[in-house]
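USER: Write out one fold?

ASSISTANT:
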Amino acid sequence: MKNEQELKDIVKERYAKIAEQGKAENASSCCGATTPSNKVYNIMMDDYSETDGYAEDADLGLGCGLPTQFAKINKGDTVIDLGSGAGNDCFVARHETGIEGKVIGVDFTPIMIQKARVNAEKLGYNNVEFREGDIDAMPVSNDVADVIVSNCVLNLVPDKQKVIGEIFRVLKPGGHFSISDIVLVGNLPEALKEDAEMYAGCVAGAIQKTEYLQFIKDAGFQNVQIQKEKPIVIPGDILEKYLSSEEVKNFNNSDTGIFSITVYGEKPGTKEEKPKVKIAEIDDEPCCSPEGNCC
């Protein structure tokens, strides 16, 4: 298996290519799929098209859930999206936080950052920004975010525990996250785990569901819960690239399960109340008296 930096470089190269493709072309990009396997694309992702704030130009079809749907974003919140890609989850979050709030997207692929910034400018969103950097060392100060979201990204990062620690650092006390990701129940065949292209796709970088949830609890999060869970099936033409016919049969008949989960957790503490700006009511009576005494 390649080392951590080599895996990051593979993912970065892969997603730079994806940034230059259209959504339809990306149908064959997930999990190292060959052209026939747009089935993976349809099974992995959830449909955003009816979601408020959805921006078609920013949807590259790379997600495995709808974390913003579960993220409990309020008006005026500061939201951070990890692995923001072309910006779609940021723009959905921006609809929820309104012009009073702020959305920050973090991605380590320069062309994705460029694409997202162009999309934000076309939409006229002045309170959405995109920062280039690794999500396991976020270019963000401590205690900044009310909410953190991410869509099918942590499974691509070699050191998931480090990312979860960064999420804890960056959230405000009382803040929370909602993250969609891929996890395992049971062990993948070694041929799938060791293939770098599969790692750069969707599955080979996933870890055990129990381990994933334990990392979150060990970081100090409370009220950890799974908001949504759905099974993922790898089509046969992908499995046949890595496994023999007998191995494919054994894998399909095994107890190994691949799941998309959306996980929620809260950082302990109490949120500070946001200051409310009151607009003075206009009375029928004039503010200033005839004597010149103003209220």
